[in-house]
Fold:
Amino acid sequence: MRMNTIKPAAGSKRPRRRVGRGSGSGLGKTGGRGNKGQKSRAGGFHKVGFEGGQMPLQRRLPKRGFVSHLREDTAEVRLTDLAKLPVAEIDLLVLKAAGVVPAAAKTAKIIRTGKLEKAVKLSGMSVTKGARSVIEAAGGSITGEPARKTTEPAKQAPGQAKQAAGQAKQKAASEAKQAG
Structure:
């Protein structure tokens, strides 16, 4: 084989389709577009999913669920992954160094999958209930768990808030009379 004899494999390079170049080509006159209609015209294209004014499929079907924007930030770590680590004190940097979580992960959550026999000391990670029980049963500890967002109590209607405040004042006054 020489440089001047190198060719692509047979059938790997097909000639370009030249449309509208006579009836003998098989793609003359209308150029494979058929007769008339929007799709035969130049620029005859409508948006993807358009069904001619009928309600399109992607709008007819119900929408369910949502995708969390934090899913790339939080990595899941199994108990078996913790058991394989050679160190006893584990934090996010140790998990990244060991290749257990991706480098882009901002937090990690320990889930109960697998077994853990050795005592480990976790710091700065979220832990599920099941995983917490297994870790503590093995003699391990969890410190510096990130604060979870708490849901605020439902707001009261303006009239109810005033009424509750008035009742609290009356209760305080009655207690003051009894004490004095």
Remarks:
- The longest strand covers residues 74-78.
- The chain is about 25% helix and 10% strand.
